[in-house]
Design goal:
Blueprint lengths: L16 E7 L2 H16 L1 H4 L4 H22 L3 E8 L2 E8 L20 H8 L2 E7 L2 E9 L24
Antiparallel strand pairs: 1-2, 2-3, 3-5, 4-5
Helix pairs in contact: 1-3, 3-4
Length: about 160
């Protein structure tokens, strides 16, 4: 089977509070994650979302941020828009010709399953190529509203066959 890419789709426009960060290196991801955790712990956010949804946002942020630094590079930027329905997470890098590719037929112990996790936790997701930049995004639910448009468009990860005696 050939490699399947993340769905190509424009970054949605979402109204809400906008937070953004520069990610110069991998060690910055944990600092930004801590800042994001503090922002979503504020009563204005925490009362309009569930703890599971906030944990999901932090996990998706970490997966997309590390992917942007590992596979994209250059000037990596993170943007989060907090709305009443949830969050839009947009990670951009300077590798517009390298789309995100979910792992298929890989042993999960070898890693590379982050995009599958992002797909499972998101209401919608995709990537967009812009001049000089790639944007990989995900919309995550607040946990308090019904989830619409939840669909698995990413191939299911499959572990290799284990021979039986």
């Amino acid at each position: 089977m050939g490699q399947e890419t993340w769905p190509c789709a424009h970054v949605p426009s979402v109204a809400g509070d906008v937070w953004h960060w520069q990610l110069e290196a991998m060690h910055v991801v944990s600092r930004v994650r801590s800042d994001l955790r503090a922002r979503i712990a504020h009563p204005s956010v925490s009362t309009s979302s569930t703890e599971d949804a906030r944990d999901g946002l932090l996990l998706v942020f970490e997966e997309l941020a590390s992917n942007a630094l590992r596979h994209g590079g250059g000037d990596v930027r993170a943007l989060v828009v907090a709305s009443s329905a949830g969050w839009l997470l947009d990670l951009s890098d300077e590798a517009p010709d390298r789309p995100p590719v979910p792992a298929v037929d890989r042993d999960p112990s070898l890693g590379g399953m982050g995009l599958h996790l992002v797909a499972q936790l998101s209401v919608d997701y995709g990537w967009e190529k812009r001049p000089g930049r790639k944007h990989v995004w995900a919309r995550l639910p607040s946990g308090l509203q019904p989830i619409e448009g939840f669909g698995g468009r990413v191939p299911e990860p499959r572990a290799p066959e284990i021979p039986r005696d």
